[in-house]
Amino acid sequence: MSTEPALMSLTAVASAIAEKRLSSREATQSCLDRIAKWQPHLNAFMAIEPDEALRAADAADAALAKGRRRGPLHGVPLAHKDMYYEEGRVVTCGSRIRRDFIATTTSTAVQRLKDAGTIRLGSLQMAEFAYGPTGHNAHFGPVHNPFAPDHITGGSSSGSGSAVAARLTFAALGSDTGGSIRMPAHFCGVTGLKTTVGRVSRAGAMPLSQSLDTVGPLARSAEDCAVLLGLMAGADPADPTAVAGLVPDYAAATAEPIKGLTIGVPGAFYVDDLDAEVASVLDATIATLKREGAKVVQVDLPDQRQLSGAAQLVLAVEAAAFHKRWMIERPQDYGAQVLMRLQNGLAISGVTYLETLRWRGPALAAHNAATAGVDAVIAPVSPVPAPTIAESDVGGGPGAEAVIQRLTCFTRPINYLGLPSLAIPSGFTRKGLPVGLQLIGRSFDEAKLLRIGAAFQRATDFHEKAPQLPLA
Amino acid sequence: MTKPTEKEITAIASAAGVPVETEVAARIANSLGPAFDSFAAIAGTLPFDLEPSTFALVQTERAAR
Questions:
Q1: CA–CA separation, A175 and A389 (whole Å)
Q2: Are A173 and A80 in contact (CB under 8 A)?
Q3: What ipTM was predicted for this assembly?
Q4: Per the residue annotation, which of A30, A95, A156, A160 is the catalytic one?
Q5: Global confidence as pTM
Q6: Rounded CA gap, A56 and A70, in Å?
């Protein structure tokens, strides 16, 4: 066991607490100690609640001493993106508009993790209303990348990526509407799972786009993501879009080898105009997967630019509809870039919007046909490693949309298709910036992605590299 | 489908109840132009009977296999 409990994985700390080799208080205090050291450098937390967290940890330890283990994550401290409602708590959604908003319900995803025994460290920073891929926030400042603090974390789950990477929390919930889990996972060197649309209930999660929003974890490994997904997935009376049926044993899937699986590499789009170091990481990862027994073949996917355009139109309209009232009453309370992007949705007619939704079924069917012979597709999350905070601080300027689209060009098509995608740490640049790749699966086949991701992580140690203080 | 002009955007935004200035309409037209261009080959070509719910059907058909 590491001498610093916060450096343990989610599954390891949960086991240590359950077996009374470690107390919840020790685990929680270790996270709080790291938060105190790192928060001034990262700005990853929106709220830090040390007293409450330690009280909850003591209660968890007392319960365990009496033989009352609440669930598989009994006493494990976590923090989540500040858009998951918890009754009686302020949930800012990264915004000025909701700076004092107190939730009256608790999100299903968070409740299920609480039912499993987790306790709360506080809440994590995010892009305003989850509408930004860089990690900038006009109201609360940018979140910094733990591996290079002058570089972005990616967004919108910026605090989740930064805090998990710096080992301030054992895992965190994010959300992914256009890449918001995978981008921070890629830029910060953590594992992030964008779930299939319908896999995890969205009840009590701040909405951005009802067609594209997904709930998922960022953690230190595929194994940890599997445990979290298994606890959260499944039907929910509060969210009719959450699909019923048996929830697979995701954790068990991570123990399976990948010999005999077939992984597709796109012949175009996802391999075009890549940064040389991202391309090199892709090649090396493919070689590793082959060594682990996977068969790797080229796949020819349908036109991804059409999917990306459709995703952009759907998101623009749905976000504008959610925000219409505040756009009328409080436009001055938005950051310039977020208001600009919300206004985009005003330009799209109802007919065009419905056409983008009507095409979603045939587009998914075409993708399924193109990938019928493979178990997963591997692709970069973004064409580039993390840019600097300064060079990506485009605000609401005329070039902002182009910067955003460049960063997210490889994630948006997957959101339009509603597919699961697992971002895994796959290497580092010469400058020390993490590079992540995404494994894209079939609808509701997260288990296969987690299996491949875990096999890759057994063969590599990129996911185990923690950033160090002092930061440069 | 062609991307909307500034004038059309001004009209659509007004009809949506959130009027925008001319320069905002111009900026929106520029921002969304690539998305409209990308989707242009699909717009106006979809079969008559196709409903948005087809997406959920395709999702679950594939998953059931």
A1: 22
A2: yes
A3: 0.94
A4: A156
A5: 0.97
A6: 13
